[in-house]
Input
Amino acid sequence: METSHSGPASRAGGSSCGLARGNKVADVTLPFWVMKVCATTLGETGGDFVSMTLNVGYAASSLILIGVFLAALGVQLRSRRFHPFLYWAVILATSTAGTTISDFMDRTLSLGYATGSAILVAVLAASLAVWRLSNGSLAVDHIRDPKAETFYWMAILASNTLGTALGDFLADSSGLGYATGNIVVSGGLAAVVLVYLLTPVSRSALFWAAFVLTRPFGATMGDLLTKAPQQGGLGFGTKGSSIALLSILVLVIVATGQASRREPSGE
Output
């Protein structure tokens, strides 16, 4: 799913890795969504590894991972061009931080998944509204100035946190379980793809809808991978699953980076 108002990245002189002219964030193409799902699933397993396997706790884990996110974001904002590994490091940081923030809200503060999700929907809507009023657009195909990029990353953090809460709600509170919850989210993503293909609905709106939905997809997939069989999971554990997902993410980043270097720049 691409969001560029001028057409696919290849027509804009960009690449699947996000090397469009002046764009500091990744172009939205099929490899983007593959890496997004890997990163969000890894965020679920990685966040659970820190907070639960290492027994750090939700509050402390959230503070640690928010610090990691802010450090990575600072480097990203200071960079002058797109760096694939840096970009996906920030995405991964928002995903892991979002996991522990959601768990802290839902479990430590006892807000519950439904209330936590409602709060996060409001936070995401507010961040997108302020961004739209400030910049006049929510397009993500040509982000260069620090203000727009800051709004972009705040919306992504809110999206990934919301996605975690939605995923946990579907898998736990709704009674659907991990596998069925994942199927429900997959259906939602399929619906977004159909709307993208068959209607002229705003590409920016569809991007954020897909971005939010890929997070609970990753959350339910992460739970399916890590939870014990008696809990409805596959029992691979947080450590093993995280290592496997990180390996896949790195391989896809490298593969798409090599593909982009073989493409003409168009300039």
Remarks:
- The CA atoms of residues 192 and 206 lie 7 Å apart.
- The two ends are 24 Å apart (CA to CA).
- Helices lie at 30-53, 58-78, 84-108, 112-135, 146-173, 177-198, 203-226, 238-262.
